[in-house]
């Protein structure tokens, strides 16, 4: 499968963290560097997991029939934003770093995915309609409010919150 590795910033000391037949992808470091959140198909479909930075102590955080992927750890380490199909199409969710208290942040006709926290933890950037005809980068407050497009060009908004 697709595996995850870590290495020093100069490309040395490569260490393999995962070793499964399934895909492992979209890693996100916790701010303290002690854990990595990632997506994996090891349970049959894409779910969010965390592991220690040495690849041990793997814990599954999501467990739905729908796909969950692209975790992004908040700067304070308390929450993980992620993409999920659980509402019928891809939207952005946030959960506590132990997998509890899942909250849907976006609710749109079009797909929203690939969240990324701002360094101050107050906002989250994401792609709306990724891989579609009206792809764009959007920003929202970390509670899902005040959604706006970065560098907006063209036909207007396709999201709601």
Describe it for me?
The protein is mostly beta strands and 161 residues long. Helices cover 0% and strands 40% of the residues. It contains no helices and 14 strands. The strands form 4 sheets. It has a 4-stranded antiparallel β-sheet with strand order 3-4-5-6, with no helix packed on it. A hairpin with a 5-residue loop joins β11 and β12. It is globular. It starts with a strand and ends in a 12-residue tail after the last strand.
Brief write-up:
This protein has 161 residues and is an all-beta fold. Helix content is 0%, strand content 40%.
- Bin the strand percentage: 35-45%
Low-pLDDT segments, ≥5 res = 153-161
Give the strand tally: 14
Question: What's the N-to-C terminus distance?
Answer: 36 Å
List the secondary-structure elements in sequence, H or E: EEEEEEEEEEEEEE
Pairing-aware structural class of the strands and helices? mainly beta
